[in-house]
């Protein structure tokens, strides 16, 4: 049986690998405020310290800016996505973060950005801050809460919907000739992926420089540096890097569905390949754990077949 043909796009090798991802519970919130600055401040605060469930308990990021004409109260807004390993965790994390980061932020309001699925409490939990002075109102079949605060009122929906069909841990690795080349490619990828709705990149600026492997030589650590992709360890540890690669960056993707993760990965890798070998990109790879971490396997060759013109393999 012959080896599969290499997939090369604009001089960039797409390795015959796959990103291994796992199920998550997720939801979308809409945050508005009097000005874009304060809407962004509340959204950034809500999604802070939420890069990885390993250390943060959830993964979250701003999905997109929403024009005032499209928000529930006609003010500037942002959509954010939040993911947790279980629905139980999601129901705990969302009201906690909303109470600490959105209720407290000047002029903010909070609305459901996802309907259906199990209800996650918003105003249903936060109303008690009003200490009996809160009032509710039914609008279009939904209940909203008006909670008095020193600045005026905090308005929020009673609940937000959720999905347990969300997927976390989609990813790809950019192998480049230099650190500036890797960063430029990652920035191009993040810009393109930001156009895909229903998916986020939860790490700082959407980019990870410290991709990990499962386990460690130290007891108690469940993840540690992925030495096979560390250029400075070439010659000391087993490497996955060609000699010309001097820097690797990873992009991790969470989505409300498997399809949205796939669309986001394809958009990002396409942008990386757009810079091509001339931009210092050598190859695109993906992180997996031999198929033991999760049931979602995003095969790079299959994913990029529509871009390369190659015939996709059957199945995912």
Mean pLDDT: 95
Name the shape in a single word: elongated
Largest sheet: 14 strands, mixed
Broad structural category: alpha+beta
Helix content: 10-25%
Description:
- The protein has 316 residues and is α+β, with helices and mostly antiparallel strands.
- The chain is 24% helix and 33% strand.
- The mean pLDDT is 95.
List keywords for this structure.
alpha+beta; 14-stranded mixed β-sheet; two-stranded antiparallel sheet; 18 strands
Explain the layout of strands and helices.
Elements: E1 7-9, E2 12-14, E3 18-32, H1 36-46, H2 53-56, E4 59-66, E5 77-84, H3 87-101, E6 109-112, E7 120-121, H4 123-126, E8 135-139, E9 142-149, E10 152-157, E11 159-160, E12 163-176, H5 179-193, E13 199-200, E14 212-214, E15 223-225, E16 247-255, H6 258-275, E17 281-285, E18 296-299, H7 300-308
Parallel strand pairs: 2-17, 6-10
Antiparallel strand pairs: 1-2, 3-5, 3-6, 3-12, 3-18, 4-5, 7-11, 8-9, 9-10, 12-16, 12-17, 13-16, 14-15
Helix pairs in contact: 1-3, 5-6
Compact description:
This protein has 316 residues and is of the alpha+beta class.
